[in-house]
Design a protein that fits this description.
Blueprint (H helix, E strand, L loop, with lengths): L6 E6 L1 E14 L6 E14 H11 L2 E9 L2 H12 L3 E7 L5 E8 L2 E8 L7 H14 L5 E5 L8 H13 L3 E5 L13 E2 L3 H8 L6 H15 L5 E3 L5 E4 L5 E4 L12 H14 L4 H15 L10 H11 L8 E2 L1 H13 L4 E6 L6 H11 L4 E7 L1 H8 L8 H9 L6 E5 L5 H7 L3 E5 L15 E5 L7 H12 L1
Parallel strand pairs: 1-4, 1-8, 2-6, 4-5, 8-9, 9-10, 14-17, 15-16, 15-18, 16-17, 18-19
Antiparallel strand pairs: 2-3, 6-7, 11-12, 12-13
Helix pairs in contact: 1-7, 3-4, 5-6, 7-8, 8-9
Length: about 475
């Protein structure tokens, strides 16, 4: 991959994704529906805006071209675009509504969505202005990404003009398509339909490699594509190579939390890589990694270079080792978890010789939230606390065993006498300590939202285990 910073033009339907977050704990007396107590309200760029967000997160310079309404939502949208550092050529049409999709989320589940928008094709006057701007600035960009959400910006005539302009300037056009008529996109470099969209556009029921190959060939013929491509959800991305062989790059997602915006991430990632002169198969692998990151988040999300590298690195580790984090890694992990509204629980200790008391304590701690992060005393820290003959098991062994427990999500080793610096990074919702801290000051209680104490199992302790071993050997 070259070191140049891509400069990419995005053309498409812009919108705002609006989220109302809350809890559903009761049924309305007015109708048999849930009552959502809204705790938080957020807005992010959606549609082509999510492609922009992904490109910015990857490190691209981005300019967007579109038609929006002349309303308060459009003012908010323009401000959001400028806040992330993207440039824009936008036409505000008083006869259109700027699209806003509102979603109500309760307990990490989408309850309902309602849209306020215009879907009619843009006017000929708006199209003419867009084309004039495109001709004026197209030479500045490495390539063009078209995000067609079927909201009226990407008309057939405008798409034809985009490809005509791009062909004349030798610029590649990558499209996330909409609808069933793909002749609209003739001359594009590639399209990114998913399996369902490709089946509808080609009339081929994709059920095996033979039907996949047939669909890819039909896409190639319908839209005169250089690279026929179909995204296959959990099965990855498929293309037809120059020898008409099907090449599939499998997905690498470990956990699918929400597929919203995954297609935008694939389009942005492919465009980013191709703009940096990567070959198509390497670009597909990168796009799979990026998609693997975003489907683990809630809502329209992005993947940074650091997240993709961390994710790629974790795939080459055992599933246990990937749960052992450094301070720097846990900071990024916690940031993502909080974006997903996860309740984070933190506890710490030496956990030298693991026994039933430890396991029961950790299981109870995990029950207080969604994610349990365990701060583990380093060997030097244990010696300072327990004496020169401790620990019995080294920190790497202790971390590995703890990370293998179902109740423990992440283990972070710390060298200090207390985990205060680690707690400052995590900022947990719940801080858990043993029952022996009753009436005592708990380190980090000034940071956590709540402190909970868990009673130990009688007769179970590392010290007693050591004493028993010593007694047997004496």
């Amino acid at each position: 991959m070259s070191n140049k910073k891509p400069n990419i033009l995005v053309i498409g339907d812009l919108m705002i994704d609006h989220y109302l977050w809350g809890d559903a704990k009761r049924i309305s007396p007015e109708a048999p529906v849930q009552v959502i107590d809204v705790a938080k309200e957020t807005t992010v760029l959606g549609g082509a805006g999510n492609v922009i967000n992904n490109l910015i997160a990857l490190g691209s310079d981005v300019t967007v071209m579109s038609v929006i309404g002349e309303d308060n939502i459009s003012k908010e949208l323009i401000e959001m675009i400028e806040d992330i550092g993207a440039k824009h050529f936008l036409i505000c049409d008083k006869n259109r509504k700027t699209t806003k999709k509102s979603r109500i989320i309760a307990s990490a589940q989408q309850i309902v969505r309602y849209d306020n928008e215009t879907k009619e094709p843009i006017s000929r006057e708006s199209e003419s202005i867009l084309v004039d701007n495109l001709l004026r600035i197209i030479d500045e960009f490495d390539l063009i990404l078209v995000s067609d959400y079927g909201k009226g910006v990407i008309t057939t005539s405008f798409m034809e003009k985009i490809n005509f302009c791009a062909y004349g300037m030798e610029k590649k056009v990558l499209v996330d398509p909409k609808g069933e008529n793909y002749t609209k996109y003739i001359g594009s470099y590639l399209l990114t339909p998913n399996k369902k969209e490709a089946s509808e556009a080609t009339g081929v029921d994709i059920v095996d490699e033979a039907s996949l190959k047939k669909a890819l060939k039909k896409l190639h013929n319908i839209a005169s594509l250089e690279i026929p491509m179909i995204t296959l959800s959990e099965d990855g991305i498929a293309i037809l190579d120059d020898d008409y062989n099907v090449v599939v790059k499998p997905t690498v997602a470990r956990e699918v939390f929400d597929v919203t915006g995954a297609g935008d991430t694939v389009l942005a990632s492919l465009g980013y890589c191709i703009a940096k002169d990567m070959d198509i198969e390497s670009a597909m692998e990168f796009a799979n990694l990026a998609a693997g990151v975003v489907v683990g988040k809630l809502g329209s999300a992005t993947a940074t270079q650091e997240e993709i590298e961390e994710y790629k690195s974790s795939l080459h580790k055992s599933s246990i080792e990937s749960h052992i984090k450094t301070f720097q890694q846990i900071e990024k992990t916690v940031s993502r978890l909080k974006q997903q509204n996860k309740k984070i629980v933190f506890t710490n200790g030496c956990f030298d010789i693991l026994h039933k008391g430890h396991v029961q304590y950790l299981d109870k701690a995990k029950s207080f939230g969604d994610v349990l992060i365990l701060g583990l005393n380093s060997d030097a820290s244990v010696k300072a606390l327990k004496g020169e003959n401790r620990p019995i098991n080294c920190e790497d062994d202790r971390a590995y065993i703890l990370a293998a427990l179902e109740s423990v999500d992440y283990v972070v080793k710390f060298k200090e006498d207390t985990p205060y610096n680690l707690i400052k990074i995590v900022e947990p919702d719940i801080l858990v300590k043993g029952g022996d801290y009753e009436g005592k000051e708990v380190v980090g209680s000034d940071i956590a939202k709540e402190v909970r104490l868990v009673q130990f199992v009688d007769g179970k302790s590392t010290t007693k285990t050591i004493e028993k071993i010593q007694c047997c050997n004496s």
